[in-house]
Amino acid sequence: MADWSKPENTGGNAEFFKPKENVGALVGFKVRRFEADYKNRFEEVRDTLFADVTVFTGPNAGKAYENAEITSTVVIKAMREQIGESVLGRLAKVKNYYVLNDPTDEDFEIAAGGSQPAKAKAPWES
């Protein structure tokens, strides 16, 4: 007989990365994979980028999201070819799209724990 265990997170209180709550924030992405026409838990089919996400500034500073589903088309295009890489940028909204703006030198310092460190480590740094 197999040794079965209960899931550690049944999703009842799971947190999801939401771009609209992080506009203007410095955000780090450890890009895991891209899937075209991915069917999510809501039965929606969309191109999806999976990444470990850390928010370094803003009201959600210090929050980390493991294996987050990114569905914003413009953000996906910005990172689609960077599987396995760590990508840093400022999340912005332009018209109806979320975009990832290039980080400044100060942003790199913040992400490294310099002038304004976040409260949590990125999932890939543990």
Average the pLDDT over all residues and give the rounded result: 83
Strand content: 35-45%
Structural class by helix and strand composition:
mainly beta
Describe the largest sheet: 5 strands, antiparallel
Question: Helix-strand pattern, N to C?
Answer: EEEHEEH
* Count of separate structural domains: 1
Low-pLDDT regions: 5-14
Integer-rounded radius of gyration? 15 Å
Approximate helicity band: 10-25%
The tally of helices reads 2
Reading side by side through the largest sheet, how are the strands ordered? 3-2-1-4-5
**Secondary structure tally: strands:** 5
Which overall shape is indicated by the principal axes computed on the Cα atoms? globular
Distance, first to last CA: 35 Å
Walk me through the structure.
The protein has one domain. Helices cover about 10% and strands about 35% of the residues. The chain starts with about 25 loop residues before the first strand and ends in a 15-residue tail after the last helix. With about 130 residues, the chain is mostly beta strands. The chain has a five-stranded antiparallel beta sheet.
